Amino acid sequence: MRHRTGQTGPDFSSATKKLAITRSQPEEGYHITTLPNGARIASVAMPHMKSVTVGVWVAVGGRHETADECGLSHFVEHMLFKGTETRSPRQISEAVESVGGFINAFTTEDHTCYYAKAGARYLGLLSDVLLDMILHSQFVPDELEREREVIREEILMYRDQPSQHSQEILSEIMWPNHPLGRSLTGTVETLATFGRARVKQFVRRTYNASTILVTVSGNATHAEAVTALRPLLSRLKTGPLPPFQKWKSRSWQPSVRAIEDDTEQSHLSLGAHSVSRRDSARFALKLLSVVLGENMSSRLFQQLRERHGFCYSIQSETMTLEDTGLLNISVGLESEKVEKAVRLMAKEFVKLRDKNIPARELQQAKDYCIGHNELCLESTTHHMMWLGESILAYGRVIDPNEVRQKLNAVTAEDIRELAGRVLHPQQIGVAIVGKNLAPEKIRQSLLGTIQS
Predict the structure, then answer these.
(1) DSSP state of 301
(2) Which is nearest to 32 in space by CA: 392, 404, 402?
(3) What confidence category does residue 154 fall into, taking pLDDT thresholds of 50, 70 and 90?
(4) What secondary structure letter does DSSP report for 426?
(5) Looking at residue 19, what is its pLDDT?
(6) Which residues, at least 6 apart from 434, have a Cβ–Cβ distance to it below 8 Å?
């Protein structure tokens, strides 16, 4: 992932002036246009905003890589910032930052996103810069070698961050010998094999009209978005969606992997296999996560921090993919407290499996989810993300009102039933990075409490 901070400048280039647009009255609602080559443009008008965010989504990520390609999607993400036929790396960032905007990108398990935000009159500029990166990146050998070193430092940086390291170990535990279990940044060994020819071949294979979607949110009409993007996207060649290895569900006894490291805290990541994005129970899963640890009112926060003082924070989150999902709980605390903390967490799991959530607690979780969504969608960047993630996952924009209705329809019985499936010994894995760890004791504490 690359983050670039904006820097305001009073002088705009002639190219910037030419790409500024004239305002017209935006329409309401979500709109999608599919071009003849298959590329898609989706937008939502936010006429009360002064900005616009443009996101170029590519339906390729870590799970589409072979073992020897591990980290290649992320490497390409970095390289697209390293110069095109007409822009140097610096000119790419300056084009957006000189008008007060920012440009960034990220890679996930199943997609890559390049996005930029600026004043609404610069819709054409943002579109031109982002699609220039997609269509005309040069992958200059010297830049490639420099960026290889940058990403090598990124890999080492994450390894030195126990909270991040434990998350990567957890992925290995939960999806062993599978692309989902590999690091998105790759390894030092795979990184060394990414030459110019290989990078270009990967882009030719995966970046095409079928895999690319552009989403626009902010003070712009759909017609303006299509006018800015159609000439650029029409240059994309057609091609197939990249295949991926599906995850086949399996069960095992709780696995605890401990990595000794001389840290002040031990960092624990606990994962439980859950439901895919196609499963209607995903709404119950979200509420289950909120009840467990997504805010200060949650059960784990109240137990581990407020009642016992074991940690500064504890966090629960969910991930849903096409064929699998994960409930993920992470916490940092002193090593001698880990075993007790795991036992307390397991006790909360048992309560959720055995008893219905009280009506008031369930309603609070629903209100939190709905309210959080509404707040996020006030941002043009978050709304751009909403469009992209919806369309890549479901082929359509999911209306926030639909999500609200689905969340409100979840019952306490739905959550208890799901907890019985997810918070089960044969679904759970634990990764810990710290010092003086006792993984077998931790495993027995977890297993003994859940099975009692």
Answers:
(1) I
(2) 392
(3) very high
(4) G
(5) 38
(6) 162, 258, 259, 260, 261, 263, 265, 266, 267, 335, 338
User: What integer is the mean pLDDT of 49-60?
Assistant: 98
Is the pTM value of this prediction over 0.70?
Answer: yes
C-alpha torsion 147→382→274→306, nearest 10: 100
Token output for 24: 């017209």
Catalytic positions are: 77
Joined tokens for residue 204: 């030719």
Residue 5: is its pLDDT beyond 60? no
pLDDT on residue 251: 67
Return the closest-CA partner of residue 273 out of 451, 428, 108: 428
Distance between CA atoms of 334 and 129, rounded to whole angstroms? 47
- 159-177, pLDDT tens digit by residue? 999 999 999 999 999 999 9
Domains of the chain in start order, with CATH, are 2-233 (3.30.830.10), 255-451 (3.30.830.10)
Residues 199 and 144 sit within 8 Å (Cβ to Cβ): yes
Q: How far apart are CA 283 and CA 30, in angstroms?
A: 22
**What is the average pLDDT across 360-385?**
97
- What's the CA gap between 248 and 305, in Å, rounded? 37
100: left (phi > 0), else alpha (psi -120 to 50), else beta?
Answer: left
- C-alpha to C-alpha distances, 333 to 146, 262, 267, nearest whole angstrom: 37, 13, 7
**Gap between the Cα atoms of 197 and 72, Å rounded:** 12
User: Is the pLDDT score of 12 beyond 90?
Assistant: no
